Amino acid sequence: MTCSSFRLDGILQFELHLSGLDTGEVSVPRHINELLTAGLVYMNNSSGYASPPRIVPKTLPGDYRMTVDTMSVNAITDPYILPMPHLEVTLGLLDVSKVYFKLDWFRGYWQLPLHVDSRELFTIMTHRGMVMPTRVLVGGTDSVGYCQNVVEEIFQPLLYHGLLTWLDNIVGYATTIDELLDTLEKILAACAEYGLKLHPDKCRFFLTSAKWCGKVVGAAGLSH
C-alpha cells in the first residue's frame, strides 16, 4: 500500500476561520488526544498551513464526529485522475447471487497513510494548537480516488468475482454458502497481508439480502 501524496498548483497561504466548535468544545480535545496517542497526528505549531475542524453529530444523541474543512487545500490541489466503479454495471453482477456478507473498515481513512510531503498541507488548527495528520483526511481532493485505488490493489484477484468494493464498504456474494466462505477466507487473508483492519460491529455474514451503495441486493433482484 503506497502513501497518498497531493500535487499543488501554486502556493497559497490559508486564511483560517474556526467555526463549529461550540458543540464539540469537549469532543475536539478528546478526539485530538486519541489521535496523538495513536500516532495518527502530531503537534506542529509552526505549520504554514491549517484547516479548521468541524463537529458534526453522529447517529447516537450526544455523540459527535470531528471532520476537517479541507476547502483551502483543495483549491490549490492538482487532482489525479482516478477512476471509480460504474455502479449500474457492477450491481448487475449480483443478478444470480443468493447469499452475501458485508465488511467495513475500522476507522476508514485513518488506515490510509499520507505521504510525508503532504502532511503539513493538511494541518488541523484547533483552539489548543495545530496538529499534522499522518493519515489521509476525508474531504481531500484525491482522498476518494486514492481510497478506491487502495481497495482495488488489495482485493484485485477477487474483484467482480464474488466481491464488490466501494471505498471502505465491501460486499461479498455467491450462489452457495461454500462459495461465500471461500471468498471470505481469501478476503481475510488479503486483509492480514496488507494490515487492513475491519470493524467487527459493522460486519455481517450469511445474509440472504444486503444493502450496498443505497441498494438492497437479494435473490429477488435489486430494490431501494
TrEMBL record:
InterPro entries listed in its UniProt record: DNA/RNA_pol_sf (IPR043502), Rev_trsase/Diguanyl_cyclase (IPR043128), RT_dom (IPR000477), Viral_Replic_Matur_Polypro (IPR051320)
Organism expressing this protein natively: Phytophthora megakarya
Ranges for domain Reverse transcriptase: 37-217
CDD domains in the record: RT_LTR (cd01647)
Annotated coiled-coil segments of the chain: none
Protein name, per record: Reverse transcriptase domain-containing protein
PANTHER family: POL PROTEIN, RIBONUCLEASE H
